[in-house]
Request: fold
Amino acid sequence: MPLVTLKEILAGTREGHYAVGGFNFNGYEDAQGMINGAAEKRSPIILMASLSACRYIGLKQTVGMIRGMAESVDIPVCLHLDHATDYDYIRAAVREGFTSVMIDASALDYETNIRDSRAIVDFAKQYHCSVEAELGKVGGKEDHVVVDDMSATFTDPEDVPRYVEETGIDALAIAFGSVHGFYKREPKLDFPRLEKIVSLTPCPLVLHGGTGIPVEDFKRCVRMGMSKINVGTEFKKAFTDTLRKMCAVLPESQVDTKKYMQPVKDVCAEIVKGKIDIFGSADRA
Ligand code: G3H
Ligand code: ZN
Reply:
């Protein structure tokens, strides 16, 4: 299928009591593995590239590669630029064919966050591209965005309606206790805050920092109305662990690189299938 927008892929998630996984990829193997897993489950999927992943792969190459993968399967696939702080790069990605971008102006004050996010929405609209933005600050490290424990701030529910209304965004990333990267301690999600935010806006909500969240917490978030759940670090860990293992297992005489990389694809597919079962998005394609 042609790539779909974030707005299209998230429509019906809250009412349908399921969430769509947003998974960070850094190259061909993890991306193709993720799509294979989603296709097997007949689930929609959001493929997310960070700024550094895009710069590593190349912008044209990223779009061309994921578009080709999406057109080879009959499930909805959305290509999303994740945590973008470089506005010129966002515009270039939109022009190139990304079907969703996240403007991360969460480090800025409320009014500036609204103004900058609105400008990106106005631009992206002309290209049939969706926009996700963040209110509050998710802690931890994601790509070049680093938020220490002291600076992490939960989303204030009272700020949400005006923010959604004035920015015109298609999805809202909220901060309510999840953290980017590995958790230093057991994650403690603020469910009453999530409940309040859900009650205040129909805008699809996004959970960032999915790695390490217990299964029951994921399920509770989905039951409460979470629409998109981002997972990144878990794939990086599985990718590197698998590659390390293959280098240890295969003899030096083995120079067929596919033998090393196929298991990487497979492990990414397995993780995606597991997440789809938890998020309830199987057979929603
Ligand atoms: O935007 C990306 C996600 O929030 C990934 O978070 O690496 O902690 O799973 P994670
Ligand atoms: Zn994130």
In short: The first strand starts at residue 20 and ends at 24. The mean pLDDT is 96. The chain has one domain: 6-279. The chain has twelve helices and eleven strands.
